[in-house]
Every structure is written in C-alpha cells, then in structure tokens.
Amino acid sequence: MELRFGMVGGGNGAFIGDVHRHGAQMDDLAVLTAGCFTRNPQKNLEAGRKWHIHDESRIYPDYRTMAEEEAKREDGIQFVVITTPNVSHYEIAKCFMEHGVHVMCDKPLAFNLEQAQELEKIAKEKDLLFGLTYTYTGYAVIRQAREMIKAGKIGEILHVVAEYPQDWVISSLVQEKSDQAKWRFDPQIIGASLCTGDIGTHLEQLIAQSTGLTIKRVLARFDTYPRDLPLETNTTVLLDFGDNITGTLWASQIAIGYECGIKIRIFGTEGSLEWSHEMPGILKYTKINSPTMTLSANREYMCPESRRLSRLPAGHPEGYYEAFGNIYHSFCEHLLARLEGREPESYTYPTVEDGVHGMKFVKACVKSNAEGNIWVNVD
Amino acid sequence: MELRFGMVGGGNGAFIGDVHRHGAQMDDLAVLTAGCFTRNPQKNLEAGRKWHIHDESRIYPDYRTMAEEEAKREDGIQFVVITTPNVSHYEIAKCFMEHGVHVMCDKPLAFNLEQAQELEKIAKEKDLLFGLTYTYTGYAVIRQAREMIKAGKIGEILHVVAEYPQDWVISSLVQEKSDQAKWRFDPQIIGASLCTGDIGTHLEQLIAQSTGLTIKRVLARFDTYPRDLPLETNTTVLLDFGDNITGTLWASQIAIGYECGIKIRIFGTEGSLEWSHEMPGILKYTKINSPTMTLSANREYMCPESRRLSRLPAGHPEGYYEAFGNIYHSFCEHLLARLEGREPESYTYPTVEDGVHGMKFVKACVKSNAEGNIWVNVD
Amino acid sequence: MELRFGMVGGGNGAFIGDVHRHGAQMDDLAVLTAGCFTRNPQKNLEAGRKWHIHDESRIYPDYRTMAEEEAKREDGIQFVVITTPNVSHYEIAKCFMEHGVHVMCDKPLAFNLEQAQELEKIAKEKDLLFGLTYTYTGYAVIRQAREMIKAGKIGEILHVVAEYPQDWVISSLVQEKSDQAKWRFDPQIIGASLCTGDIGTHLEQLIAQSTGLTIKRVLARFDTYPRDLPLETNTTVLLDFGDNITGTLWASQIAIGYECGIKIRIFGTEGSLEWSHEMPGILKYTKINSPTMTLSANREYMCPESRRLSRLPAGHPEGYYEAFGNIYHSFCEHLLARLEGREPESYTYPTVEDGVHGMKFVKACVKSNAEGNIWVNVD
Amino acid sequence: MELRFGMVGGGNGAFIGDVHRHGAQMDDLAVLTAGCFTRNPQKNLEAGRKWHIHDESRIYPDYRTMAEEEAKREDGIQFVVITTPNVSHYEIAKCFMEHGVHVMCDKPLAFNLEQAQELEKIAKEKDLLFGLTYTYTGYAVIRQAREMIKAGKIGEILHVVAEYPQDWVISSLVQEKSDQAKWRFDPQIIGASLCTGDIGTHLEQLIAQSTGLTIKRVLARFDTYPRDLPLETNTTVLLDFGDNITGTLWASQIAIGYECGIKIRIFGTEGSLEWSHEMPGILKYTKINSPTMTLSANREYMCPESRRLSRLPAGHPEGYYEAFGNIYHSFCEHLLARLEGREPESYTYPTVEDGVHGMKFVKACVKSNAEGNIWVNVD
C-alpha cells in the first residue's frame, strides 16, 4: 500500500519545497496525488503536471478547495505537506485537519504559541498524525545516538553543547541582494524572533531527539547585527534540563566561515557522543578513558533502528535530501501502520507536541533576553 | 518536455538500481515509463507498479520484447537505463541501440574490450547518446576542479595521485557471509580483473573527468588477499600521461579503515587541487606559496558549471544519490537539446568512448601485472 | 648578553616545572643560575646539579635566602621563575620583587584578588617586569591572529566563542588514583574556583591576547560533577566586552573525549579567525563570502611578529614546550632591552596586570554563579 | 650519570643544528661539552660560549683536533653529534670512531654506499654505538604502532602506503631565492639523488621502524621539475617486502599544498594503523569491522614503550624537537647502559645498519629509474 499525499506550497522555486517533495516520495511509501503549489494559476498547473499529478482536477487553485474536494473522495489524500511561509501554517494545517487529513508541516509549526497549541489540540481531538520536518533529526546516526544513550552507553547525561553557526545573514546583507531574504527579517511575517526561531529551534529539537531530554528553563542573550535589524541574528542560551543536567545552545547567522555548521556534543558520566553536520554520516563516541571511536552509518555495528534509515552501503554519503526522506519515512510508516491497524516497527519523527515545545522555547528565550537575561521556564 | 526512459534490471534489491531510478528522475527531466526489472514475473510486475508505470503493458518480461515494443510506439522510451550485472551490458545495450534507443549504462561498459568497442561503433553509426554512470565524476566540485584547471588556476599539471581504498572484500570475507559478493570474485562473470575493473576504473575516470588528461601507459602491480582468490584485490598503477606528466593510482578492497575513500590530488606548476569523498562538497585549492583554500559547493565564488550541479544552499550536504543525479542531469540535458535541435548549455558525463578507454586501461593493467610489472600502452 | 635566572619549585617531578626550565632556556636568552627546587635538601641539591648550576652555593634551601643572597651578588639572578603551587605565589613573588628581581610566575598569579593586586602594586612601584605563563597565548599563530585583527582583516569584532574542554577530572576520579590531583579540589589550596580558575582563565587570557578585547561583565553558571566535589568542574560564561561585542566561554574538566581541547573562534563584520589546540600551528581565516584559508605557522605570508615566534620551517610542528618558550622569549627580549636601554623589537607576554584581570574575572564568575547567574562587572 | 658529548657543525644557523643540540640535552641525559661548530674561528668561539662550553679550550678549530684532544682526556666526550652537510659525514664519523667516540649523525649516513658500509664496518669492529636521526621515527605513537604490530593487533601485514609530500623545492624556486637551497641540487654535494635521498629515505626508515619490515626490492620512477634540474624532485616507488607483502612510497618536493606531510598507512589482515605528521600525537587504529579508534599519545591505554617517549600529559602537543629528543633519549639510554654494564630498559633508534640499508635503498631506486623502472634488489 502506498500513501497518497497533497502539497500546499512548493511552486515558487524555494529549494525547501523540492526537498519536501523528494523526501516524501524517496522510499516509495507515498505518492504526490494532489496539490496547490502557488497562487499563480498557470504556474500551479505547470507544477502539478511536472510533478505527475495525472488527474489535473486535483491541481487546486487554493488550499481550502483542495481540503474540501479531497475529503469528499474515496481516494483522497491521506496526508498533506505544508511548505508555505511560517505565517500561513496555522490556517492551512487547521483546515486540513478539520477535513480529517493528517499533516506534515515545515518547521516552525506556527506563527506564535497560541496557534501552535490550538493545532496540537485539534490534532489530539481528531486523532490525527502531525509531523514536523526538523531536518537534522533525520540523519541515521542521530538515531544511533538516541539508542546508545537509551542503552546507557554514556551513563547519565551531564552536559550538552549544541551549536548552529551560519553566515547567510551577514553574507547576503553585505552583497545587498536577497529579495527572498527580506521577508525573513520582518517580525510581521516571521514573529518575534529571527535566529532563535529559525535555527535555534533546530538545535532544541536535535537535542530533544538525540538525548530524549526536555529543556525546562532557559537564559538567553540575543545579539543583532547589522545593528539596525529588527530581530536577533545571534543567540546564546544557557539550558537547564533539571536534575542538574545543563547545556548551552548557540545559534548564529553572522558566523563567517560557517554555512550550515550544526553540531551537538553530549557529555555523560561514562562517555560522550559528538555529531557534526560537516560529516553527517559519522558519529564520534568516546567511552571514559578510551580512544574516541568513529562510528559510520550503516556499518554492521550500528543498531537496527539507525540502519533502517540508511539506504546506501557505509561510506556512500547520504545528505540533506535523505535526512528529510528519513523523517517522511518514519511518518509514513506510522501512518501506514495506523491505517492497517498494525504497530509500526519503529518511528521517530518530530510531532506537533515537539513543535509546541519549540514555540515555547522560543517564547521563553525572547522573554529571557528582553528581561535582561534571566532564567525563564519553558512550560 | 520530459524524457521517457525504461529500465533493465534494478528489481532484485541491489542498491544501485535504486540509485539509478532516483538519479534519472531527480530533476524532473525524465520519467520512468517502461521496464524489465527482473526475470521473476511477479516481482517484475510489482516493481513496475511500485515505481508508477501506469501502463502495465509496458512492464516487459524480457528486454528484447521491451526494445521491440517500445520502438514501435510513438511515445516509446527515449533512453534505456541498464543496471544489470556487467556480463549482460553488451547484449542489452546493443539490442536497444539497434532499435534506436539512447543508452545510460552502469559501469563498466562491458565484459571485455571487444564488446566495448563494438558498442562504441554502434553508437557512432546510429548517432546515439551512450552514457556511463561513473558516480564520482558527478559531484559538483569535480566539475569545479575541471573548470579551474582549464582556466589555468594550477598552471601545467605535473603529477596526479589518486586512491580508492575500501575494506569490503576483506571485511565481508572475514564474516563468511555475502552471497551477493560471491559472483564478484568469479572471472567468468566479472572478467579478468576484480579490484582494477571494479574501482580502479572509477579512479581512471575521475582523473580523466577532473583533469582532462588521458592515461597513455601503465605499469601495474596486483596483490591478492585472501591469497587463494582468483583475482586481485589491491592494485597499484604507475601512470604516464605523456608530456612528462605522471601519476599514481591505488585501488584496494582490503584497506581496513576505509569504506569508500576515493580521493584525488592534482599537482601543477602554479597550484594544486584536492578532493576527497569523505567530504564530497569540498574542494581544496592551494596556489603556490599561499594558504590552502577550502572551496564549498554552491557558494557564489564557484563557477557556473559547478553551481548548476548543486541543488541546495552551500553547507547542505548532497551525497551519492545527487552525484548520480548530476550525471543523469547532464545526459538528459544533452538528449533534450538533441531532440529539440538546441545546443545544450553544458553537459559533461562519461560516454561510451570513456568506457572503452576504461576497458583498455584495465586490459593494459592486467597485461602489465602478468608480464612482471612492465610499462604497457593503453591504446 | 645572556640573562641569569633562578627558579623556585620544579623539583618534585611535576611536568610544568620542566616546561618552565626548558622554556626559559630554549632560545639561549637566559641560563639557570640559582634555584630552590624543593624543600627536601638532598633532592634540591640533586636537581641543581642535574640542571647545571655550577656554583652549588647557589642551590638554596629556601626562597628567602635565595632572594637575599642573589640580591647581594653583582652577578645575581635577573629574574626568578616561580613554579610552586598557587597558594605560595604571592609570598615568593613579593619577596623577590622586594629584592629587586624581575618575576616570571606560573598562572594563576595568586590565591586571591587582594594578593594579586598587591603584587601588581609592588611591580609598578619597583618598576619590575612581571610575566605570567598563560601557555596558549604563546603559540606563534595566536600572535598572527592578533596582528590580523589589528590590521582590520576581520573588520569589527562582533562575537567570540572560546572553549576549553578536558576530561581529566572525570577520568582520574573514575580511576580513583591521582594523589597529585587531590589538592586540586581543596578550596583551602586552590581558592574559590576549580575549573574557572584553572582553565577558564586560560580562555580569558587567550581572548585578551588574541583579540585585544577586555571582558567587562560576566554571567556565569557552574556545574559540579561528581556532585559532591566542593568546587565546579564545568563552567559556562556569557561575556560582555562592551560596545555590543559579546562572547561565550566554556571550560570543562568532565568533557570525555577531550584532553586539552582549547579553541577560539572570533567573528567580525568582515571575516573570522579560528584556532584550535588540536593543530596548534594552524590558523583558519575566512573573509566574508570567500573560501576559508588555512594559514600555517612560519610561511612567508605570515606576519613578522608571528614568524619571530617560529623556530622551524613551516609544517614542522612546534608544540607546548615551544609555546612556553615563546612567552619566555618575549619576556627575555623585554628584559634585555630594558637592561640595555633599548626598545625591544616586539614583545607580547601576559603580565601582572593580565593576572589581576584574570583574578577579577574568576571572582566575578564565582559571584555571578552564587547569586543565580546574574551579570557581574569584572572591574 | 650524565653523558658528555661534542658537536661538529651547527654553527651556521641551519635550524637542524639547533634541533640536534636541544634534542641531545632535552632529558638531561647528556650535556654539550666540546664542539667545532663552524670553520669561522670567531663564530665558532661565540657559538661555544653561547651554548655553555665552560672550558673554552674545548671549542676546537677543526674536528680532527677535537677528536684527538678529546680522546686524550679522561673526561673526554663520550659521543659526537655530526650535523654537517652530507658530503662530510663519512670522514668526520670515521675520525671520531677511530678515536673511540660513539657517533650520532644526521641522516643520510654518507655520500655513497661505499662510505656508509665502511662506517658500518668500523662501528662493528670498534664496538661503537652509531645512531642516525631519522626524525619521524622518534614520535611516541610510532613506537606504539611498532608494539601493536608486534602484538598482532593488525594481524599479518599485507600492504603499506607511505607518502611524504612537500612543496619546498617548487615554492622556493618560484621565488628565486634560497641560496641555502642551491647546494641541495648539486650532485657533487648531495650524491645521485635529491628527493629520494632527502625525504624518500625518511619514509624507508619510518616503514622499517614502525612495521619491522625490510624492503627487499624496489621499482622506482623519478620525475624532475623544474625540468632542467639535475636530480629528481618527485619519486614513486613500488615496494616488495617479500612474503607477498607490498607497498608504495611517494616522496615529492613539488607538492603544492603540503609542507611536511609525511604519513604512513599499514594494512593488515586483522586491522590497520595510520599516522600523519599533521597531528603527530595521534595514531588511528581500525580493527576489522569495527569503528576507527583515535589513540592519543600518553593516555593510560598506550603501551609503556610509547609512554616513556611522552613528556607531557595527553593532549599537550609534542612536536619535532621532542621527536628528535626521543631519538637521543633512546641512544643515550643505550649508551649509559653500556657504560654502566646494564641492559637498557628499552631503546629503539635508527643505527648505522639502518643507514646502510637506506643508502642501498636509494641506490636501488636510482638504478631502477635509470633502467626504465624495473625491479631492483636492495641488497
């Protein structure tokens, strides 16, 4: 059985739409069946044709029509992929859920916490699956880290250091280009946070998915450069996970020399784990007083939960597309199992609950920074 | 316009079939329309359905029928992807070419040089495109290397050092598993060479595609471990490109610690270039008496020919699938331009001529080794 | 002219005494002439003989006698090296300064801020040189960083990220060994801070020496593991340099997988610099929108101020001993120039003022942590 | 007991003299007592004074006088360090041995094989120690590799890949400077080989010392750039160790991007080892089908034979000077044990026999290249 999905957004050339479309179909678990890709009717039609929607009546002029019409069909879509700008996630997701359609949404979940919580509430009431594509949690070796921690391989966690330095804001502003980028600085469109919401949340999720820990309190400091931007471009957050477990999170969009340098280090009483996006198929593991070991995705010594997320023999690099594919893979497995009344073999993907926590995290950081870098509870 | 292609092989679960199928369709330039995926009729049908061949009459029981039937259709396939074992490439490619179908073939081109040369001859006579998927030549930064060399950025080339260490033979033999692997040691199936033909040719092509140089003479030494295997598992080759340009090529399938460690270093009179599969989106460039520079795929400072092969913003890793996609991208561009009477903007993919040269290279290495490690002309 | 120096401490086998002795004599600018190496008379004598103090009357039973006797001689020592535990630095340094002897002292400067400030006062009043061996500031490429920043190569500094993860506390406690280590956890011996004072101050100095910036305010969080230790073993500090320049400093002695992993990253408006102890002769430099460059110590493209601190051709690694040697080199140059009435060509070494600032930094961190992670002024 | 040594050469400012002097005295096992540092009498005297030869009568005008005079003294030098150009090693070493003085000589041993063999013969007849400073064999982790191989940690050795790329010839010629370098290209001064003799022999020794293997046959190809130089600047050698054990050695002085990039990889039936000068305190070890482990000098898991060669805690980099110090350390231990009638605890340093083998290796390579890249026996 193959799932049918529709897509809202993705028709305006942003790379992330392409990544969603490929990710969802990568492992032949789902097929694009309907869509509303852009408001421009001609481009919308062309996109639907190009991406092999054979029944052109299912290339819709707006998402509401799509939700209504697909809901009427016996062979209607089973889930929708939302890859529009942040500000519209809420209304689109809500609309499809009201028509009984499961949701896969680009992060962040919504424009603000209230919206996010309402989406969570609806998903629960309607008993619908709601996934979020926090990309980096999809890498096969992140799953390995999670399983090793569960198995006690590093003892009790003591401290977590996560960072995500980028240079795109400073680099693109210097070149005075990037029309695309301008909306990204507008609080009316993106909300009360730039760097924290955009990439800080990736770290928050990566920590959650790899360690199983939840951030309880934050103490955040925001920096802004260029100085006259309305929102922060560099964020440092002290993390408190409770039980004397602490951490630090640094996200930056002005870090010249880094492009997409997300990295996590997890220190425990018996060992440590380290992952860097620079070599995304590698996980470094050190047992106390032992040499550091370099674990490589899909080797036989890796755990089955991780190997299921590898498509290629060890040493053949899988990248960003495939990490996305893994999130969709887990989501589709879960949905298929649900539809077939089975227990899924294994699924781990960020959900609406994670998205709500992410929104709370950002809100707490904004508050902490505004009030002079004080501790603020996330919940 | 979207190209229609068929596929022979790929239905038995080998990962490479999957890589071909994804690669060919990655950029929406071609769509799988027909196929003969395996000899098992039930599995063949299932594969065709799963991969969305909507007209089930185009899921064929054998490749000859496929070639004949597709040739009769107005909307028949425009190219065929051959991803069967080495030994059958020749007859399948020949059959499709005789029916006027362009060919994309897994490497190596054929079982022996004679077959390879006949395929080359047919392709020329019929004026058909014939591509070969030497994967590593598809990485975006390899194209960057090629353009930088053309532009004189490293001066005149003096010396090339290429290596491809793997551990799979020694690792899998130790574990006494790998049914799949057994046929790989059978000279009846794979020909007169194991390591040289399987991965040495990847190096030969990588050198050719990145530098533009052609190997004129070789002096090869083969080693075999386990000692009783019929064919070599470790190959060292001194290379002579003429004009006092030299090089060394080392391919190994017993190199514990390496999985897919292909790497090339090109030394010139004014600078050097270095690429390693470990970080496939990075190209190291050193101008004489200057600091080494780390070039990253898809940055604005990269040349347009390379950037066209990147789908994601810099720092978002593209891997093995995407490298395959790039080879198909170039092939499809070329074919589309041909069909539309245009000049393609740019295409660089390994062709049947390259495949013939690769066969000659292997043959010369086998001879050099057999005769006591003497110089042997490739042509 | 060669300087004469004496040494207090270094006779009990701690590696750091050896490092001082070698460092001071590495470039033939000074020679060990007198000493009081340990309280054990026999071992003291043996040490003095072994280290070529030819006049055995200059192997002293205690540091006071040494200060007095050397001060009486025309050929008395010109500077003293103090390499005893932290708690005795103050009295020894004070004693020698009162006898007109210049001082080179192991870090930290003193047991507490009051002592440190008194030493600073005496040094000023007596117009004596007083250096401190913050090792990492001695690497040749740190000097390169300083000069590049001065020359505007990275524009205005925006943010600094410094870290120093080690595993020695957690590793040695697990093994229940390390008598030597026990005193290191005793607040009566080491003062009010463990990790911050021991290695956090190395970061504070490294930031100061490489960037020229001074930390104005800190917000610190201390963690302790094992939980019942009296002092912190993991420190995270938010840094405020004024003028909207910020930073973060992380020092840890429980970071399994790291031995001496000091690293600094300096982000500016036009570029960035990065140095890691893992490869201490390398400095990474990225100009905005340009490939990262790997600068190597002693290449011709390095600045003269840095090259003066390299003894070997580029690529020949100089390590920890040589970094120490560079600090002594700068100190000796300065002292020689002073004695000869010249202006030294160039000297940069941490001084008593830096040591006082380091003590203030630690005190402010202790206070910030104790009061709930609030901002505390350093001065 | 401390050994007394004299030095011939080292007074003309070449860095290697300094490295010898420091290395010999690093661990307080020997002290410089006599010398003939340069033919210039004034500079000779100054050098002797600067380096603390207290009895100025032992600063000699020529090495013959030094040998004679020191031989007459009861407290004469016990070994001599020879750090003059290659061409004079033979006569100096011979002279001192004839006076019963042990020898430590800079590599290569002599100008040609005949000289080398005579030195070997004299050393045997006189029962004198004769060490050679092949630097890279002195790193602590090279000793670890040797012990691990002896202990069977990588099974039977199958293949060795060693390389030593440098850029100094091409870089300095481009800048048309380097008076110092000119004599290095003169066959009258350096013999029949440039790159092979200068740095190829470092690889030959590194292989011997780390693996315990001896090269039986070579097949060498020399390249020369600039094309009109009299001797080779790039060397590739196929190695045959017998017993089906093979290897490759590549040395280059035109490899832009590399400064001192010596590296060795040793592949066995059960594992592999890898060392690179880039991080000289690290040894990579991979057991078959296991993650690669990163071993770090002086950790408790290292073998005692290696840890004895580390002076600093793990993670504190020791470099080129210290590697030299380790060779002297082993030599001095051996000599002290000899003089005291003890068995030394452990010593491993390259000897005159190794030097002779190195000369044979170069001679065989020269012959192989001259005769068209054929196999030539080393012995």
How would you briefly describe this protein structure?
Four copies of one chain form a homotetramer. The first copy, chain A, has 379 residues and is an alpha/beta fold.
Account of the protein in words:
Four copies of one chain form a homotetramer. Chain A is α/β, with parallel strands linked by helices and 379 residues long. Chain A contains 13 helices and 14 strands. The first copy, chain A, has helices at 15-25, 41-50, 63-72, 89-98, 113-126, 140-150, 168-174, 179-182, 187-190, 195-211, 304-307, 320-339, 352-370, and strands at residues 3-9, 30-36, 79-83, 102-105, 130-132, 157-165, 217-223, 234-240, 246-252, 263-268, 271-276, 282-287, 292-296, 376-377. In chain A, helix 1 (15-25) packs across helix 12 (320-339) and helix 10 (195-211) crosses helix 13. The longest helix of chain A is centred in the last third of the chain and has 20 residues, at 320-339. Chain A is globular, with a radius of gyration of 21 Å. The two termini of chain A are 40 Å apart.
